[in-house]
Amino acid sequence: MKVLTVTGYKPHEMNISSINDERITYIKETIKRRLRVFLEEGLEWILVSGQIGVELWTCEVTLELQEEYPIQLAVIPPFDQQDSKWPEGLQEKYQLILMEADFVQLLYDSAYKGPYQFQAKNKFLTDKSDACLLLLDEDNPGSVKFFLEEAQSKSEISNYPMFTITPFDLEDTAQEIQNEQGENWNSN
Q: Coil, helix or strand for 73?
């Protein structure tokens, strides 16, 4: 596997309303741990559309991992100015990520025109990747279900592995981090 699409929930789908929510730390650490495994196996590219939430956090993690691994980041927004209605802090993060990404290309060189742009984005991301990693609770798929449906369709006709990060994985990471912090606090 050389190219991995990563996607998942938007912050509001996880009841995250602040860019300083501590759960983001656990999500990013879980993503980082998963990506490290793939990087050790030869992963070269992370592919995202740049939407808020899991995808932007993945971008931040990927840029951090570039200090250790020769991983590249491609951001393929479905349309121009996808961040125009986002909170200012997220717009700034998004613009910085676009500047630091190794490859950025709009899927449609226009502003939002309709849901077909999101459908085309999902198809493009699955077509251009060897596998996907989804932060997903199958009981509550949220907006991720549209990408999941496209990935499942591709998986039925070709070898397209779909990896998931579940709420249980996030809980495990949170517990491990809290245990490590407790041990560090006790040793001081």
A: strand
